[in-house]
Design brief:
The strands form 2 sheets. The chain has a 6-stranded mixed β-sheet with strand order 3-4-5-2-1-6. It is an alpha/beta fold and 456 residues long. 44% of the residues lie in helices and 16% in strands.
Length: 456
């Protein structure tokens, strides 16, 4: 990652490709000088004011007319002096500007280096830096809201409150470590125990948001399963909005699974169409059914598609064991073929929710999407006004916090040595600090920020 904070770095901050505009970003101590030299100024322009001017390279040749904005430290994204140049979105123009900046002494920014500098300069904590990536990749309203709240410090505020409570408990214990002739009296043990249980409750609440976080970041893995010719591919096409899968009256058209990403209200789905279940399948079709069962094993939500005009089929044991009320929604298709007032022939398994649709006409699709949204939102944990959804790194750190708290509470119950009790609390504090980045672990930081895109 950053080879030297004294370097001035530069990169394209917008996607590569032809567009109306492109933005080239530079950050570092040379930005004020760069602005004066490139645009022929006697002094920098007022900070945070866009200026329409000509960009001329080192030879004096005109590259483009641009909007240039100078940001003075610490009031920039990175906390350093920064310069943003908005040019026409011709990739050749943007590359010429970058090439000129490199000729003037800048170096190419590494992946995530702008955000890492913002973190190192105290402009954001580590959880907020991760929220930048979540914000860029958010594909639904809920994911976007969660990323925005984390970027504004919602998770950091909760961690700060837990940290303060744990620090107070540790300070009480440390007082007895410094004066070993004194033992921790019962009343102080009681206060420490109350504090630790409160912190553990707070970490429980945060850990409970893990599942919702996975759904927001990865999408709801939604697998359509049913017997051959039940209309699975037709339902996929209807939900996607175009002919993504081949549809034929002949059973067994789909031999492998097909995946598409679509919006469902405020969420997004990884929608997977699978090979039809057929007990008399040919060898190639049977391979597709094996893939179907594999997809079902990793599904967040299974749409069990049944032909409403026919009795429900007998399902394989390994699939039937997987179908639970919490992860299965029965979809009775071909309701357009039923006479008015006629009940579907197929019956949903006991305990499973069900909706009726017509993949041919689109009837019932809104109800289906609403039910999918309801099931996804059921994973959301109520944490007041904050929408918090932790990620895998947070989970690992919070699990270590809980181990430290559990060990500490056990020592309180058995009146163990205060030195060991203090050690458990310090380990819990370190783990809490890792979430916000209040520690020095250069290898972990390099790995985390390397997942960012160049220019961010």
């Amino acid at each position: 990652m950053p080879r030297s904070p004294a370097d001035t770095i530069a990169a394209l901050a917008t996607p590569v490709g032809t567009s109306a505009l492109a933005v080239v970003r530079a950050s570092g101590p040379a930005c004020a000088t760069l602005e004066r030299e490139i645009f022929g100024l006697s002094s920098p322009t007022p900070p945070r004011v866009a200026t329409h001017t000509d960009y001329r390279d080192l030879s004096g040749a005109l590259v483009d007319d641009v909007l240039a904005t100078y940001f003075q430290s610490p009031h920039s994204y990175t906390g350093e002096d920064a310069l943003e140049i908005s040019c026409h979105g011709n990739p050749y123009i943007a590359q010429k500007i970058l090439t000129d900046l490199f000729a003037r002494g800048c170096r190419p920014a590494e992946a995530g280096e702008f955000t890492q500098r913002a973190f190192l300069n105290g402009r954001m904590d580590l959880s907020q830096a991760e929220a930048v990536m979540d914000l860029i990749h958010a594909r639904g309203e809920r994911a976007l809201a969660a990323a925005q709240q984390q970027l504004r410090g919602a998770l950091g505020r909760r961690l700060a409150a837990l940290t303060d409570e744990l620090l107070n408990a540790l300070a009480r214990v440390e007082a007895y470590v410094d004066f070993p002739e004194e033992d921790l009296p019962p009343e102080d043990r009681g206060l420490v125990r109350v504090a630790l249980k409160s912190v553990r409750h707070g970490t429980d609440q945060l850990l409970a948001t893990r599942r919702y976080g996975e759904l927001l970041r990865d999408g709801i893995r939604t697998v359509i399963i049913g017997e051959a010719n039940a209309g699975k591919s037709s339902l996929l096409n209807r939900l996607v909005g175009h002919e993504r899968a081949l549809v034929s009256p002949e059973p067994g058209t789909t031999r492998d699974f097909i995946e598409e990403r679509i919006a469902a209200g405020p969420h997004w789905l990884r929608l997977i169409d699978t090979a039809g279940l057929n007990p008399a399948a040919a060898p190639l079709e049977q391979l597709g059914i094996v893939k179907t069962l594999e997809c079902a094993a990793g599904a967040d939500l299974i749409l069990l598609l049944l032909d409403a005009t026919r009795p429900a089929p007998t399902l394989p044991d390994e699939l039937r064991d997987r179908l639970l009320p919490a992860n299965t929604l029965v979809v009775l298709n071909k309701c357009d073929l039923l006479a008015p007032g006629t009940k579907p022939v197929a019956v949903a398994p006991d305990g499973s929710g069900w909706v009726t649709v017509s993949a041919l006409t689109g009837a019932g699709l809104e109800v289906l999407q609403a039910e999918i949204v309801r099931r996804a939102d059921a994973y959301r944990q109520d944490l007041g006004e904050d929408l918090i959804a932790i990620n895998a790194r947070h989970v690992e750190a919070l699990a270590r916090v809980q181990r430290g708290l559990t060990d500490a509470l056990a020592k309180l119950d058995t009146e163990g040595p205060v030195e060991l009790l203090a050690s458990d609390l310090r380990e819990a504090l370190i783990a809490l600090g890792e979430i916000g980045g209040k520690f020095d672990n250069e290898q972990m930081l390099d790995r985390l920020f390397s997942t960012f895109c160049i220019g961010k």
